[in-house]
Amino acid sequence: MRTSENSADLVAAEDVLLFANAAITATGQREFRSGALDQQLSLDFLHTYVRVNYRRLYAASLALDINDHNAARIVLGLLATAGEASAEERRTEGRLIAARLARLPPQRVYRLFGEVRRAGINNRRTRAIMRDWLAARPDLGHDAVKYRSGVKTAARHVHLRCPQGAEPLAEVGAFLFRPGKLPRYEHPLLDAWRRAHYEQGAVAELPFTVAEGFAARHGMKREVFLKRAAPRMTRLERLRTHAVTQRPDVDLAAMPLTRLALYVLALPFEQRAALRTELTDALRTAARRAAGKHAGSWGRVHAVLDDSFSSSGSGQKRRRPLAVALACHHLLEVLAAPGAYRGLWTSGRGDALLVRPWGPTPLGMRVLDALEPGPGGAEPDRLVIVSDGWDNAPAGLAGEVLRVWRARLDPGRRTAVVHVNPVYDADGFDVRRLAVGVPTAGIRDAEDLPALVEIARFAEGRTGAAELHAYLDRRVALFLGEKATEKEAVA
Fold first, then answer.
1. Which of its termini does the chain have fewer beta carbons within 10 Å around, N or C?
2. Cβ–Cβ under 8 Å, residues 282 and 267
3. Distances (CA, A) of 279 to 20, 248, 254, 440
């Protein structure tokens, strides 16, 4: 009996780890080797399977570093199937949902509320969650201008009371449901939107995405409009609107590490070389910020970084795998002890700033190089492999090298090995693995690397289901205890 219970726990742990990898990497978009429909169908199956069989763990995954797409899907699934949960489960789920919504970008939440309305989910708990989130918004008038249809849909669904008079909520109600009723608004953005219909000067007072439409209506020159709108742009909006031949009017070092790596890879080689000092300093600063308390604590670190042709990603996720590898390269340099990092690209390039997707994936050869002792004849304390796992030059060599090395040369596990994979494999319902004994974790943002290495150890087979459940409980407690933060600054 105990054997069967242990087997069931082991299966449950494997299923949860499989789902966590998918929820971190998959976004339902096309990848290099699979289409969007394949990705969506694979995700649909996984979400349904885990929610039905492990509902408590499904809800607890909201506390992990999953991506926003899957977080929204989990919230929608929990709200749609509230009748399948016990009263205690609903209370815990409500707290997790509220905490996760507070951390999601507002446009993502409004999109989720639209899906809730279309799905006809209108129970009391759902309306309470939506009302609480709307009530916690710092400026609902700003949201009404920038996300008008989303706010309108949410307000209708929860029957938000918008009283008459000059109260802020009354003005928002009039703006949404009775446009043109009031001759002017006290809220500056609402009134700027009213004036922007006939006054060019009011256009620059609006959020950039709203102002673009009015600028086109007034026939404003693009250069003039961008100059006027610059003070109200977010960092990403300033990056997107500057030509690649110009220096962006933004503090690059303040950008999130992976987002910065994506920007760097979008620049032509000539500009990367010309801005080498500025870009390298920005990447290192972002890496130090991402490493935080873990900086310098990983000892000797060797890394194998995939810059093969498949790292070009897809039209929807352009250069995303390569950007993750570039960001991990700089982060691992900070995590390692000073002067104890060695990064090896599959292409053999030695200049990380000028990497590009090219050629096959000789992971096996690079793993052999990475396992060689570093300066002073010391073996690495950690070997980190950042790749989509398609080892094809020759096929399967990396897995065989790691198997033989672990069995014959390092049975005592002096060197910790982890494979982080930025690409979801729709056919395998998981990220592609190199070898059975090598722990693998999905990764979307390099900033999550320290936490993902901790999750990956559960896949190595040296810890049991009880340890995994305890880890999830700790993450849930920490998640619910932390103060919520907004992502609008980089949305």
1. N
2. no
3. 33, 12, 12, 30
φ and ψ at 305, to 5 degrees? Answer: -120, 125
Spatial separation of the C-alpha atoms in residues 50 and 121, rounded to whole Å: 21
SS (H, E, C) the chain: CHHHHHHHHHHHHHHHHHHHHHHHHCCCCCCCCCCHHHHHHHHHHHHHHHHHHCHHHHHHHHHCCCCHHHHHHHHHHHHHCHHHCCHHHHHHHHHHHHHHHHHCCHHHHHHHHHHHHHCCCCCHHHHHHHHHHHHHCCCHHHHHHHCHHHHHHHHHHCCCCCCCCCCHHHHHHHHHHCCCCCCCCCCHHHHHHHHCCCCHHHHHHCCHHHHHHHHHHHCCCHHHHHHHHHHHCCHHHHHHHCCCCCCCCCCHHHCCHHHHHHHHHHCCHHHHHHCHHHHHHHHHHHHHHHHHHHCCCCCCEEEEECCCHHHHECCCCECHHHHHHHHHHHHHHHHCCCCCEEEEECCCCCCHHHCCCCCCCCHHHHHHHHCCCCHHHCCCCEEEEECCCCCECCECHHHHHHHHHHHHHCCCCCCEEEEEECCEECCCCEECCCCCCCCEEECCCHHHHHHHHHHHHHHHCCCCHHHHHHHHHHHHHHHHHCCCCCCHHHC
| Mean pLDDT, residues 351-356 | 95
CA proximity to 6, closest of 468, 455, 464: 464
Task: Write the pLDDT tens digit of every residue in 408-446.
Answer: 888 888 999 999 999 999 999 999 999 888 889 999 999
What tokens appear for 166 in the block? 């000059």
> How far is Cα 305 from Cα 187, in angstroms, rounded to an integer?
51
Give the pair of three-digit tokens for residue 421: 């994979």
- The alpha carbon of 185 is separated from its chain's Cα centroid by a whole number of angstroms, namely 38
pTM of the model: 0.89
Query: At which residue do the structure tokens 């096309």 appear?
Result: 30
Query: Which residue's entry shows tokens 């020759």?
Result: 394
**Cα 85–chain centre separation:** 28
Do 382 and 418 touch, CB atoms closer than 8 A? yes
Q: What is the pLDDT of residues 441-462, one digit of tens each?
A: 999 999 999 988 878 877 665 5
Q: In whole angstroms, what is the distance from residue 59 CA to residue 50 CA?
A: 10
pLDDT score at 257? 95
**Token pair belonging to 6:** 């242990």
